[in-house]
Amino acid sequence: MDFLNALILLLNYIFIPALTYGSQLALGAIFVTLIYGILRFANFATGDMMSFGTMVTILFTWYFQSLGISLGVLPTALLAIPFGIFFMIFYMLSIDKFVFKYYRTNKSPPVQLAMVSIGVMFVTQAVVRIIIGPSDQRFFDGEKFIIKAREFKEITGLNEGLALKSTQVITVLVTIVLVSLLFWFLNKTKTGKSMKAYSDNEDLALLSGIDPKKIVMITWIIAGILATIGGALYGLDKSFKPFTYFNNMLPIFAAAIVGGIGNPFGAFLGGYVIAFSEIFLTYAYKKFFMYMLPESMEPESLIQLLSTDYKFAVSFSILVIVLLYRPSGIFKGKVL
Amino acid sequence: MRKNLNVIAAYSIMMSLIILVGIFQSWNIALSIFNLCLISAVMTMGANIQWGYAGLINFGIMGYTALGGLAAVLISVDPVQEAWSAGGFDILMSLWLIIAMVLIIRFILKRFNKSKIRTYSIAVIIISGILLIRFLAEPGIEAIEAVNPAKTGFLGGFGLPIIFSWIVGAFFAGGLAFIIGKVALGLRADYLAIATLLISEIVIAIIKHEDWLTRGVKNVIGLKRPAPYEVDLQSTDWFINLVEKFNSGKLELISNLSDRQAALNQLVIEGSSIFVKLCYSGLFLTVVIILLIITQKALYSPWGRMMRAIRDNEEAANAMGKNVVKQHLLIFILGSAIVGIAGAMLVTQDGLFTPGSYRPMRYTFLIWVMVIVGGSGNNFGAILGGFAVWFLWIEAAPIALFLINFFTAGMSETHALKLHLIESVPYFRFLMMGLGLLLIMRYRPKGILPEKIEIK
């Protein structure tokens, strides 16, 4: 019984939250890695682009709610996400046309593109804050829990409750579907393969008749889908605040680099590596050991490796270690 | 003289803008803008040394600024004796442990060849060392934080004049840069940017949460000042006489004696805060001028030429026998040290240290906008960038408000869109910064005052 209690405890406080958070990071990290692999620059506007897509989704959610449209137990936001994606893609393509294209055709060094993306970051941040304001926005509706902690306790008779939020399940399911579709697209279709070829060797790809304009456009479209869905899922699960989204850029970057930048599968796993290590290292294991050890050996302190304040610091330290020992990332991305 | 015409023109426009603010808004605002412009200028000079001279991207400016601020606290605050006696021993022990750990690791790295066993043993030493330190320091930290937590709850500093912290801040920041440089300088440009950005976040996390050292988010307020206090000035005779002399024309117009006294008092209160700000301006201006002379000399010295050679073609410079790695590390340290000075200056001016206020937007990306807009590689350009961008950053809200009122003049006062726009006026500064950066990058990629290399 104690063993089961301990297991549920870990499931409830480590595994499920980390899986959800990891999925959200993974979507962002694939976005970063695609832009890096195909357009060849580190996009510092990542977080703010995600917040832009989420903002449009929120506005549509509110509009639907005012019309009385809802999905019953599911959050209305799911209905609004396609509209968010549409506007996001439009926004990204126009930014590309007016800003990034010039530097791409001039073959500017990646550093210059990264600087330009900082300009885009400022502008996007301003647009989001002017339209929706800097404060917290909640747009979740529908059924909040699939399993409630108290009900779980009553059914199983265990001491530890397991709470499963619907947003957590939605996040994980949507991520699985989206990522499998994406990998199918990248690996099996002609366009996906030409994207890979373009990422590996631009000149060779051009010689074999691949149209760079099409590749760039499709990259932005995929990026728009990933950014909006990733952002909206994060907002549904936690809450939407422009500043948090800007800050999320950092663990997303860490995930993309840890996974090997330019490698979408690596970025996907990198998201989970970052999320799990953040939560593993900052969780206080006192209760876990209380269940596992006999009473005489019960720990007195919290048995916490690092205080939760250092959550972000953990992912960044992992990044530094990876950069030092395996600069191409765990799953071999582009060699630096 | 002729070739410097654009520099002189740009600077006179900038100064006249600040003077205009003084005339139309108030001299107090103008001076506080000017002071922060000077501090920004120091930061941009630091970033410019790294980016403009050597082509290194450092997105960790926020971290160095915060370390400079920490130096100001550690130097100027009086030591808290109770806290030292409560937990000072544990902290010192931990410090010795850290030093011992570093020495052991250095020894292992030097003595043994690279192998898996070496890597693992170093990892084991680091992890067990951290656990041991946590175990040892915990009671000490708790004891320190329990000492009068509302007022102190930290070890305090050395109780020296805060001016010294400007130098110490430089050393702190330089030390951090040495560690980061050793770790990250081998990375390619954009990875270096990301790595430095993340490391600076770690630094901020530590400063925010190690309460025994920095008081964390409880902030340190009431730091000592290098300038006189307004309250003291207001009761000093020579200052009152000075104000009277300055405003004699205005005062003579008031015939009633008590009215005149009241007007004088008002002027003295205003004057005292302007006088204090002027003191700061003088101090900051001295720092800026000294740094400008040094950096200008360095730029045109053989060393500056070598740095540019490294920046423009690393392989060629390496082939000529220049030690690229060493020079990169050196310039990384120098630039960061200058940013550290600016961080200490900032805390000195504010008189308070608020770890929660260090955000990458304000202290990293804004500084980069300054460098790019002003002109990388040109010290005058970098300083001008600091001035222009900070001026715009502050004056963006009034400008935006004016524009909104202008374009929505046809709407009624209660129109929802107009009210919403007016409410979001503070965020137009981000828009202006972003558009400014994008336009400069597109149409004047070398900045307002581009790099100019004279061969003498």
Order of helices and strands of chain B: HHHHHHHHHHHHHHHHHHH
- Care to count the β-strands of chain B? 0
CATH class bucket of the largest domain in chain B: Mainly Alpha
By CATH, the topology of chain A is ABC transporter involved in vitamin B12 uptake, BtuC
Structure write-up:
The complex is a heterodimer of chains A (about 325) and B (about 450). With about 325 residues, chain A is mainly α. Chain A has one domain (about 1-325): ABC transporter involved in vitamin B12 uptake, BtuC. Chain A has 13 helices and two strands. A two-stranded antiparallel sheet of chain A has the order 1-2. In chain A, α1 (about 1-40) runs antiparallel to α11 (about 265-280), α10 (about 240-260) packs across α11 (about 265-280) and α10 (about 240-260) packs parallel to α13 (about 310-325). The longest helix of chain A has about 40 residues, at about 1-40. The termini of chain A are far apart. The relative contact order of chain A is 0.18. Chain B has about 450 residues and is an all-alpha fold. Chain B has two domains: about 1-80 and about 155-445, ABC transporter involved in vitamin B12 uptake, BtuC (Orthogonal Bundle), CATH 1.10.3470; about 80-155. Chain B contains 19 helices and no strands. In chain B, about 40% of the residues are buried. The mean pLDDT of chain B is about 90.
